[in-house]
Amino acid sequence: MTGWFSARNIAIVALVAVLLLLPVYIELGGNRFLLSLFTRIVILALAAVSLNLILGYGGMMSFGHAAYLGIGGYAVGMLAKEGIVSGFVQWPVALGASALFALVIGALSLRTRGVYFIMITLAFAQMAYYVAGGIARYGGDDGLTVNQRSQFVPPVDLTNKVQFYYICVALLLASVFLVWRLINSRFGMVIQGARSNETRMRAIGFPTYRYKLTCFVIAGTMCGLAGALLANHTDFVSPSMMYWTRSGDLIIMVVLGGMGSLFGPVFGAMALLVFEEMLPFIIKVVATPLFGPTAARASEYWQILMGPLLLLVVLFARGGIDGLLRKLDRRERP
Amino acid sequence: MTAPRAEPMIAPMLQVENLSKRFGGIVATDDLSLTVAKGELHAVIGPNGAGKTTLIAQLSGQLTPDEGRIRFDGQDITALPMYRRSALGLARSFQITSLFLDLSVLDNVALAVQAHAGHSFRFWRDARSEPGLRDPARAALDRVGLGSRAELPASLLSHGEHRQLELAMALAGSPRMLLLDEPMAGLGPEESVRMVEMLRALKQELTILLVEHDMEAVFALADRVTVLVYGRVIASGTPDAIRADAAVREAYLGEAEGAAHG
User: Which CATH number characterizes residue A286's domain?
Assistant: First the structure.
């Protein structure tokens, strides 16, 4: 089977290797800032993987997925503020609250289609955003500092940055594995069938609503976990975690990486966030010889380049990064 | 002890009583009654806009009738959703090919098998390696002559093959009755002949309600024919009786002559 040595699989192995070896590189004298950046990448990749489950495989265009980041995060932050710092309480509460929120949103929004579905998921996430901004006890608009990270039994210490990073990577890989099992199971076949042709699914005897709702809740719960991790990473939660632009970022990660591909969202998250870091720098380097000191100011508007780049991906690289890798594989074959 | 009534009491497979469906001011189904006996191939014909597809949609549960009652094998299914009817053994094929185009041919049929294999809240085991789903799916594909195309994406099949795949999916759940909505639509002459042969074979085992434009096929296959015009039954009987029926000739079969007069 030459199938194993495809460009796609090589890229995936390389990606996982980079994720696993990054702390070693830093230990050998690499930039310490990279660890924080990659922890963030891994956490948001987990969120993107969960969105990919409903968006890529299930065809459910949720525009409010960041709400679960916020709910998971606030569960950790609010409990910490009340003096409950045990991760064994915080994390199940984060997951449970996210699941419950997903159940309510899903139950209402999955009865609608297309634009209405998008708008309802967006509306609920914005509602969560404003509610979080309105609770003065937990910081309101200013957000809430998490003074102590989630506590687990001794060898586990989330304040150890390397350890925390590896926990995030392990959870990311576990979530990719979970999605892989899910989409190939009977349940996953129903979800993908409903994406492909929902009327037909009902005609051949599937009550699609309950399957889609279950999928929606699983994805929301996974994203809630990412939220709990994010709160621990930044030691801070704020309503902006749930703002609609954050939901948009997650969608971009999924589209950029390749909808409905297993590792696509991980590639997408990495590409987007690395790009965000590098683009101002690139603009500065490229533009300074041409425009002099004004280039420094121009680099603050790096998003001006981000937009057209995304447009190019959508127009010319359908299937995102994963699509490009598959195209490579097809070309290589005799 | 009274003796049972002397009429033949073979319970009908499908019994439609006084069905009505309106869309705004348009009456798509008008007080329609229809009985399909077990093992019968019952054809429904009618000019365009006669409400044939609306009828199938109501029988399959895609649309809810405004009035009337539908019984399937003695059970009132008027209020049952589509998936429940399907689970009872009432399968439908679509007029406009309605497949899972981004899945493989075999996946398409395997999903139809899965629909009848209990609930699908099974999250772990690889469904593509379950013989319980794959074997019956392959059997259904072989039955319609698509066995060699199983691994292709459904989007790559020809139109004729799509119709065959439709049929394979309808068969996959081992239904007791098929609702076929214009299975010949868009088929070339050769494909049509093959489809008629296939339906003739299926007719031995299944009850079939066939909505079809192809008159040749209808009169070759049907045990009984019902003629709809503007949502109303204007005649029902054996193919010979229908051919001889004056009202049918005027309203439908002789529609071209009528147009010439007009």
Answer: 1.10.3470
**Tokens 């990659």 identify what position?**
A38
Q: Which pLDDT band, with edges at 50, 70 and 90, does A225 fall under?
A: very high
pLDDT band at B260 (very low <50, low <70, confident <90, very high): very low
Chain B residues bordering chain A (beta-carbon distance below 8 Å): 60, 62, 81-84, 86-87, 91-92, 94, 98-103, 107, 110-112, 114-116, 120-128, 130, 133, 169, 173
Which pairing describes strands B12-23 and B67-72: parallel, antiparallel, or unpaired?
antiparallel
Look at B186 and A160; give whichever has higher pLDDT: A160
Side-chain half-sphere exposure of B157, counting CA atoms within 13 A: 29
pLDDT at B261: 40
The CATH architecture that domain B10-89+175-262 belongs to is: 3-Layer(aba) Sandwich (3.40)
Looking at residue B253, its pLDDT comes to 59
Domain of A117 in residue numbering reads as 2-332
Number of domains in chain A: 1
Residues from chain A that touch B111, judged by Cβ atoms under 8 A, are 189-190, 193, 201, 204
Taking CB atoms and an 8 Å limit, are A205 and B99 in contact across chains? Answer: no
CA distance B27 to chain A (A): 24
Closest residue in B to A195 (Cα) is: B100
Which among A189, A200, A204 has CB closest to B173? Answer: A204
Q: Where are the domains of chain B?
A: 10-89+175-262, 100-174
Instruction: For residue A49, give the H/E element and its range.
Output: helix A33-52
Q: Which residue has the higher pLDDT, A234 or A32?
A: A234
Q: How many interchain CB pairs under 8 A, A with B?
A: 91
| Residue-wise pLDDT tens digits, A62-105 | 999 999 999 999 999 999 999 999 999 999 999 999 999 999 99
Mean pLDDT of B179-190: 88
* A222-245: average pLDDT: 96
B114 to chain A: which residues are within 8 Å by CB?
186, 189-190
Say which DSSP state A56 is in. I
